[in-house]
Design goal:
Blueprint: H1 2-29, H2 36-68, H3 70-91, H4 104-128, H5 132-154, H6 160-182
Membrane topology: Multi-pass membrane protein
Pfam families: Mntp
Subcellular location: Cell membrane
């Protein structure tokens, strides 16, 4: 039972780290004049993408794990480290002003872009044999909630918080990647 609770805690922390992108984008989108119905829709779409992308990653990770074993585990740890470093790096870059609006194809592009890193993490989780349904529930629910929080807070606070939240998310993924690789040393 404690192993299951430990897995839930680990997945929740990872999902929160991945959801920092959704939160950051939500802060930016929150600067638009959005109705509550649109905020609800945006959160659901981003949450759905945070289910689809890790599912694809998990399926690919299980395939790799079955065929490449320990090498796949090592690659999974490296992917988390690279993803964490990339998130930290991008948080310090100047953000370009986007002409894309959070509707239609623009919303799908936003959702895809903030959930792309979930594919990489899903790949790692598939390699390590994480419980798929548990991963998808936690990732989807947290991404949806973080997006809603970002959208609602975006109306009230400045965009500088988004930069720091992405750096925090990257740091968490970096730490998990180092932890996974440390099992090989």
């Amino acid at each position: 039972m404690t192993e299951f609770v430990g897995e839930i805690i680990t997945l929740t922390i990872m999902a929160a780290a991945l959801g920092m992108d959704a939160f950051s984008v939500g802060l930016g989108m929150g600067m638009y004049k959005l109705r509550l119905r649109k905020i609800f829709e945006i959160g659901l779409v981003i949450g759905l993408f945070h289910v689809i992308m890790p599912l694809a990653g998990i399926l690919a990770g299980k395939l790799l794990s079955e065929n490449f074993g320990a090498l796949a585990s090592w690659i999974g740890g490296l992917l988390l480290i690279l993803l964490g470093v990339q998130m930290i790096w991008s948080s310090f870059q100047k953000e370009a002003v986007s002409a894309i609006t959070p509707a239609g194809a623009g919303l799908l592009l936003f959702a895809f872009s903030v959930s792309l890193d979930s594919f990489s993490v899903g790949l790692t989780l598939g390699i390590y044999g994480a419980k798929t349904v548990l991963v998808l529930l936690i990732f989807g629910i947290l991404a949806t909630m973080q997006t809603w929080a970002g959208l609602l807070l975006g109306k009230k606070v400045r965009s500088w918080i988004g930069t720091y939240s992405e750096a925090l998310g990257g740091s968490i993924l970096l730490a998990f990647g180092i932890k996974l690789l440390s099992t090989f040393w």
